[in-house]
Design a protein that fits this description.
The complex is a heterodimer of chains A (453) and B (482). Chain A has 453 residues and is an alpha+beta fold. Chain A has helices at 2-23, 54-66, 119-127, 145-150, 158-161, 164-167, 197-200, 236-248, 261-268, 283-295, 308-318, 347-360, 384-398, 412-415, 428-438; strands at 31-33, 44-49, 71-74, 88-94, 101-105, 110-114, 131-132, 168-174, 180-184, 209-216, 218-219, 223-231, 255-259, 273-281, 302-307, 334-341, 364-370, 375-382, 404-409. Chain A folds into 4 domains: 2-94, Uridine Diphospho-n-acetylenolpyruvylglucosamine Reductase, domain 2, CATH 3.30.43; 101-219, 2-Layer Sandwich (Uridine Diphospho-n-acetylenolpyruvylglucosamine Reductase, domain 3), CATH 3.30.465.10; 223-318, 2-Layer Sandwich (Alpha-Beta Plaits); 334-415, Alpha-Beta Plaits. Chain B is α+β, with helices and mostly antiparallel strands. Classes of the chains: A alpha+beta (453), B alpha+beta (482).
């Protein structure tokens, strides 16, 4: 007891000096001292700062980088459980107050926005102009555009529209030494210099703080619908044959997502493997494609077509099925979210395996994966021990398929037992080299990424 | 086969010849090297030390390792169609020609991917899979001869990238020989988002300065069900520009949206694929939409309406595939066609926000008047990618310099309105200095720092992509390396 008290005393002293220094950079109202430095999901900070300008971001980073302080970056906090072996950094840099549209050139269909802007807020703003950002990340109400890009989050519609790397055309990034680096630009086509945008997308905040993002927009689809095709027999080969036939046709689905029976039960009420096939286009084209699917519908399957609004309601619910890092995560049950990447059609195997494991491993598993892009999201609930065992089982399962498992959400304590990024790639020295050039002092999101970068 | 039969005096050439299996796979005599002293950018020329023709990744790796250990500058070359000088051996490089590594290694239609060697020709991929109804989307105008390896190096675009994206949007994996000879594989099975920084994205478009790609996994697409092409003639450039904006604002994403101005039309009509465009119009638009048949007519109607609202003189829809192909041949050979009306021409490659089109075209006209040189405009109007073609006569003293200055000024205009100095041709040698129009010294150093991670000795394709360091840049670099 005595020892702990003394430590707290020492920390308190450091904090005073540290606070004074931060107060020379920011106003008092932008600095919040955290009473409880530990959080079940980790990635917290002794002090949370809320910069409102790029200059303030740069000054905080410069101060931290010069003074050997560690900085963790947070947007909406939905990915707080995603990676990270630091329970509490010196500074938690929140971008919650760095938000808003900087420039929207309607005719050019480009948008420049501050990174702390919540994703859904942007989509609602753009909808007034019949435009949209062609990304469908989880928890859009809370997730910020900066966080979506830094963690490279994508959803089922990636099949048609691609991911952040296909939408982002420019960025302003604050390097740990306070330098502002612009990458890309404001035009939709650009090959001047290295494509540095790509470096920051998915870098988990380990290279710089994304301050501003310029995106290329798409017109909002004039009509959409969603076909839910259920396979009560549960025959994976039959699902595969259907998917291959659809993929080999000239139809243009926006999503071709397979739901595990457990997830399907939650979303559709039917405990069967279900394909969520989305179409977005002018109305005549969408109906034409629906008709095609009806024509090739396998026997013994059942089909529901959700038009327009119903489709949107389905997707809204869909984007909130996984764990949300904003919730404390200290419940009785351990929640984990996995991103599993495999060759497209191997998604069938992964979703089937998730169904088998759920029966065998004393955990609850809900899973879905895109047959046109090869990415699965798997949500596991159970005791810590069982969850860890299941993650291991998935790794054993996908390694021979040439795939990977990334743990996107897990409580801090368990992240120390499971390597959330899996094995280092053979070219890890290049990743390390890039980190060393940009953040030599490991100031930013220390140990948040692959191989402890 | 045996190297000893040949009199090679240079020990490096002798050793390199051994790696590639003999004298038939290496060029080193001056008369043989002449063909490799430049690429599609012909204003700078320099002879390479030698040209080697490896047949496998292992041979590439050994060549690179040898160069690395012996401090020999080297670079990779595909078909040599690059327009910015990226494959010019400025420093007397050993040129590693990848034209013998030209196999299609595998096609997986179900998972929509193919694996090719770097020397595989772009259009051949589409030809190999078109009977099954699939194609490879990036379509640079030189696609009948340019290689996919070169496309990766330059992040090549093309007329149809408005809807389908450029090369980087279609690369799923690659095998790379790093500048020290080490071989790495990044997601060669095509699995998306491999954990780690996005090296695929970084390598694509790095203009051969970070590594040599020896295997490429690309995404292939199913052919669109329907395709319609529209040709529209305008009396005023401003009406044509406005029509471009209106089409996009109507929520249509055309597969391609191309524009040519009067001078350009004069050129293409005098060249090999004339279509019979009227000579007195100021601009034409070539518009293509594709997708589900049931939705196409609606889009075509909308496009016709927009054109009429913008005072189009004549607008027509291609009646069959033959007519469509004629229109495209006329457009795709547009650069070369300038040879029919001018002894020499210089292609530029600026990008602007679409909405600035009328303003920028006006300023290009002023530049043309200022230098007394004609400038033809052929461009991807839909994505704001301009190709001003400066027409000149190199035989007249001083005219080459004038053309270069006019081209550079066009890029300055693009940069001034918030655009870029290159949309698809790359920086290469040509636009090194123009990098300063859009990037600060610090931003350029941020990029060369990345190069140093991959290519610390800077033996691989040195002198490309970045401006010659100014004084202040050098000082800063020295500080950084301390």
């Amino acid at each position: 007891m005595f020892l702990i008290t003394e430590q707290q005393g020492v920390l308190g002293l450091i904090a005073t000096e540290f606070l004074l220094e931060l107060k020379s950079i920011l106003r008092d109202s932008q600095i919040q001292v955290e009473e409880n430095e530990s959080h079940p999901l980790g990635n917290s900070g002794r002090v949370t700062v809320y910069p409102q300008t790029e200059e303030e971001i740069a000054n905080v980073l410069k101060y931290a980088d010069n003074g050997g302080k560690k900085v963790t970056i947070v947007g909406g906090g939905t990915k707080r459980g995603f990676g990270g072996l630091t329970e509490c950094a010196d500074i938690l840099l929140s971008l919650a107050d760095y938000k808003g549209v900087v420039e929207h050139t309607v005719g050019d269909m480009t948008l420049t926005v501050k990174s702390g802007t919540p994703f859904q807020q942007l989509q609602e703003y753009l909808a007034q102009y019949n435009q949209t950002i062609a990304l469908d990340p989880a928890w859009p109400e809370y997730a910020t555009i900066g966080g979506v890009i830094a963690a490279n989050d994508s959803g089922p519609k990636r099949f048609r529209y691609g991911s952040a790397r296909d939408s982002v055309i420019g960025m302003r990034v604050v390097y740990p030494n306070g330098t502002i680096i612009r990458s890309g630009g404001k035009v939709v086509k650009n090959v001047a210099g290295y494509d540095m945008n790509k470096l920051f997308i998915g870098s988990m905040g380990t290279l710089g703080v994304i301050a501003e993002v310029t995106l290329k927009l798409r017109p909002l689809p004039k009509y959409e619908s969603l076909i839910l095709l259920s396979f009560p027999e549960g025959n994976i080969e039959e699902i595969r044959a259907f998917a291959v036939r659809l993929l080999d046709s000239m139809m243009e689905p926006t999503s071709l997502e397979l739901l595990s029976p457990s997830l399907s039960e939650r979303l559709t009420g039917k405990r069967t493997y279900t394909l969520a096939i989305g179409f977005e286009d002018v109305e005549s084209s969408v109906h034409y494609q629906e008709d095609f699917v009806k024509r090739i519908q396998p026997s013994k399957t059942s089909m529901a077509i959700l038009p327009l609004k119903e489709a949107r309601v389905f997707w809204q619910q869909f984007y909130t099925i996984g764990p949300n890092g904003r919730q404390s995560g200290d419940g009785q049950e351990i929640e984990a979210a996995l991103k599993i990447g495999v060759v497209n059609l191997d998604v069938l195997q992964v979703i089937k395996e998730s169904h088998i494991l759920q029966e065998a491993a004393n955990v609850a598993i809900e899973a879905h994966g895109g047959l046109g892009h090869g990415l699965c999201q798997v949500y596991v609930k159970g005791t810590g021990e069982d969850v860890v065992a299941v993650i291991e089982r998935f790794r054993q399962f996908v390694t021979p398929l040439g795939g990977y498992v990334i743990v996107k959400h897990l409580p801090f304590a368990l992240r120390q037992k499971v390597d959330v990024w899996g094995e280092k790639p053979s070219y890890f020295f290049l990743l390390e080299g890039i980190k060393a050039k940009i953040d030599p002092n490991h100031t930013l999101n220390h140990r948040r990424f692959v191989g402890g970068i | 086969m045996a190297v000893k039969d040949v009199q090679i005096k240079d020990k490096h050439i002798e050793n390199l010849a051994k790696i590639v299996g003999g004298a038939q796979s290496i060029l080193y005599k001056k008369e043989d090297l002449l063909a490799y002293d430049c690429d599609g950018f012909t204003i700078h020329r320099h002879l390479p030390k030698a040209v080697v023709f490896p047949k496998s990744t292992e041979e590439v790796a050994q060549i690179v390792k040898y160069c690395h250990e012996n401090d020999l500058p080297f670079l990779a070359r595909g078909a040599g169609t690059g327009l910015s000088g990226g494959a010019i051996p400025l420093n007397g490089e050993v040129v590693i020609s990848l034209t013998k590594m030209k196999r299609l290694l595998s096609v997986d239609l179900e998972n929509r991917r193919a694996v090719v060697e770097p020397g595989f020709v772009n259009l051949k991929l589409t030809h190999s899979i078109s009977d099954k109804g699939y194609y490879y989307a990036p379509d640079p105008s030189s696609q009948y001869c340019c290689t996919i390896g070169g496309n990766v190096a330059e992040n090549a675009g093309g007329a149809h990238c408005l809807k389908y994206g450029v090369t980087t949007n279609h690369i799923l994996g690659m095998e790379v020989v790093l500048p020290n000879g080490e071989i790495i594989e990044i997601s060669t099975n095509g699995v998306l988002d491999p954990p780690g920084y996005d090296l695929l994205g970084l390598l694509t478009g790095s203009e051969g300065t970070l590594g040599i790609v020896t295997k490429i996994t690309v995404r292939i697409l199913k052919n669109p069900e329907a395709k319609q092409t529209v040709l529209a003639y305008f009396d005023k450039v401003s009406d044509a520009s406005q029509a471009v904006s209106d089409i996009i604002s109507a929520g249509i994403v055309p597969a391609a949206l191309e524009m040519m101005d009067k001078t350009a039309i004069e050129g293409v009509e005098a060249a090999a694929f004339p279509v019979g465009h009227p000579k007195d119009i100021e601009a034409l638009l070539l518009i293509e939409v594709d997708g589900i048949s049931a939705g196409i007519d609606e889009q075509i109607d909308e496009i016709l309406k927009v054109c009429r609202r913008r005072n189009v003189r004549e607008v027509k829809v291609a009646q069959d595939e033959k007519e469509r192909e004629r229109w495209w041949a006329n457009r795709k050979t547009g650069f070369g066609a300038m040879g029919a009306i001018s002894p020499d021409y210089l292609v530029q490659d600026g990008v602007i926000p679409r909405s600035k089109l009328p303003e920028v075209l006006e300023r290009i006209k002023q530049i043309s008047e200022k230098y007394g040189l004609r400038i033809a405009n052929i461009f991807h109007a839909g994505d704001g990618n301009l190709h001003p073609l400066v027409l000149f006569d190199a035989r007249k003293p001083g005219e080459t310099e004038k053309a270069l200055a006019a081209g550079s000024e066009c890029l300055q205009v693009c940069a001034d309105v918030g655009g870029s100095i290159t949309g698809e041709h790359g920086v290469g040698i040509e636009k090194r200095e123009e990098m300063r129009f859009i990037f600060t010294d610090e931003e350029i150093i941020a990029q060369t720092n990345i190069r140093d991670v991959f290519n610390p000795k800077n033996l691989l394709n040195a002198g490309k992509l970045f401006p010659t360091p100014g004084r202040c840049v050098e000082v800063k670099r020295n500080e950084k390396t301390k």
